[in-house]
Design brief:
alpha/beta, D-Maltodextrin-Binding Protein, domain 2, 2 domains, 7-stranded mixed beta sheet, 21 strands
Length: 428
């Protein structure tokens, strides 16, 4: 994580990289391609690389079937994607980035600008990304909100524009509002606050994610909610704030508070399904996977709000000609409906909610997006039952959930310091 072209070592400010820009982007549809394009299309293979929760073989299979060229998936962890982008960028074509990872990829020149005029459904995509708004109001700017990093000035400029331009660093992908997972049958009381993650009531029965940029967010939400610490901006903590937070985590760990620090999706599922932990950091698909085993698990709404995150699909700088044309086709397909319907069933949202909802049944649409009680059983993307008729989705409707995002996942200015302190937490 240290070698990031000076981004971390130089501590480039999240705000200092934002520059002015005001051109309004077009949203015209892509026109037809020459016959030679169609004839050669079958020879194209695009490598989509990202984390396990969104880089799914089902998506690759459907894209290959629908588009006529081959899409393959390559799964890496968070450091693995950054390493590939910096050290071996030609080994992938489409980077499934978390927004904060663009702060490494873009200054490195790993991505080329995406011409917004070629994204035919851009005007339909969520204003969380394209305008920094939700429900007509400005979305939280604590952390790395998508709007602050989505635009650039031109195809080959490696930076971030301060407003709307005709070029994007990435095309909006999947996103969600994260909270804590709980075992309602085992916690023994009401859970309403992030502070419950560090409550003595759950000593030895809780876990936190061992991903520094994410785990520190959960820790800060918990510490602030418990009245232990206060932060000027949880999205960009100072060295003193990080030091105090890690000190509290080390104290808790030495006292036996944490049953585990999990690093993978499967670890979090197993901890919760087995009952080894009853409250923990969790991802929405992991909650779904626990439910699919017939075990009660809730993604609990909390009074302080959610930790938001978003992904974007970046086009690698080496793409050109036919392969670049195919990449644009893939980006247009990605938000056209099928992916949105599929990932809704694991609790995620599509950047084109309208096409995602159209790809769901009336029952699924009501449950996942509209806050309505299910009229029949709800199933996971692979068909296992996750909810019974009469149940309402944890947190309610799409509007309810995203109107309560308090902070976004981020790569803070003091990221290098964070990683060093997090290593101390691991070693304690």
């Amino acid at each position: 994580m240290k070698k990031t072209g000076g981004l971390l070592n130089g501590r480039v400010s999240r705000r200092s990289v934002l520059k002015g820009g005001a051109a309004v982007a077009g949203a015209t549809a892509v026109t037809g391609f020459p016959m030679v394009w169609a004839q050669n299309l079958k020879d194209v293979t695009l490598m989509h690389t990202g984390m396990s929760y969104s880089t799914l073989p089902d998506i690759a299979r459907q894209a290959t079937q629908d588009l006529g060229f081959k899409v393959e998936m390559s799964v890496v962890d968070h450091p693995g994607l950054l390493n590939r982008l910096v050290q071996d960028p030609k080994s992938l074509d489409i980077a499934d980035l978390e927004i904060w990872q663009s702060k490494v990829a873009v200054p490195q020149g790993a991505l080329q600008g995406i011409e917004i005029a070629k994204i035919k459904n851009w005007g339909e995509l969520t204003p969380l990304y394209t305008e920094g708004k939700f429900g007509g109001k400005e979305a939280s700017r604590q952390g790395d909100s998508p709007f602050e990093y989505i635009y650039r000035e031109g195809m080959d400029t490696n930076g971030f524009a301060g407003g709307v331009t005709e070029w994007a660093n990435f095309c909006p992908g999947v996103y969600n509002a994260d909270t804590l997972g709980i075992r309602p049958d085992l916690v023994g009381r009401e859970i309403s606050s992030w502070a419950d993650l560090i409550s003595a009531d759950f000593k030895g029965k809780t876990a936190i994610q061992n991903i520094p940029t994410n785990g520190i967010m959960d820790a800060m939400m918990a510490c602030e909610s418990a009245g232990l610490l206060t932060y000027g901006d949880k999205g960009n903590p100072t060295q003193d704030e990080l030091t105090a937070t890690i000190a509290k985590l080390i104290e808790l760990k030495k006292d036996g508070h944490f049953r585990a620090l999990w690093s993978t999706f499967d670890e979090s599922v197993n901890l919760m399904a087995s009952g080894e932990v009853v409250i923990q950091s969790m991802w929405s698909p992991a909650v779904t996977a626990v439910k699919a085993q017939g075990v009660k698990c809730v993604y609990q709404p909390l009074k302080e709000g959610y930790r938001g995150w978003g992904n974007g699909l970046g086009m690698l700088a080496h793409l050109e000609g036919l392969k670049r044309d195919a990449a644009y086709e893939y980006l247009n397909w990605y938000n056209s409906g099928w992916v949105g319907g599929f990932i809704a069933k694991q609790g995620y949202y599509s950047s084109n909610p309208a096409t995602a909802m159209a790809a769901l049944s009336e029952n699924e649409r009501g449950f996942f997006y509209e806050g309505k009680a299910a009229t029949a059983d709800i199933t996971s993307p692979t068909g296992e039952k996750t909810n019974s008729a009469g149940e309402v989705r944890d947190g309610g409707s799409y509007e309810e959930r995203f109107s309560k995002v308090a902070v976004w996942n981020n790569l803070p200015d003091e990221a290098e310091f964070l990683y060093a302190k997090w290593n101390e937490f691991n070693a304690a």
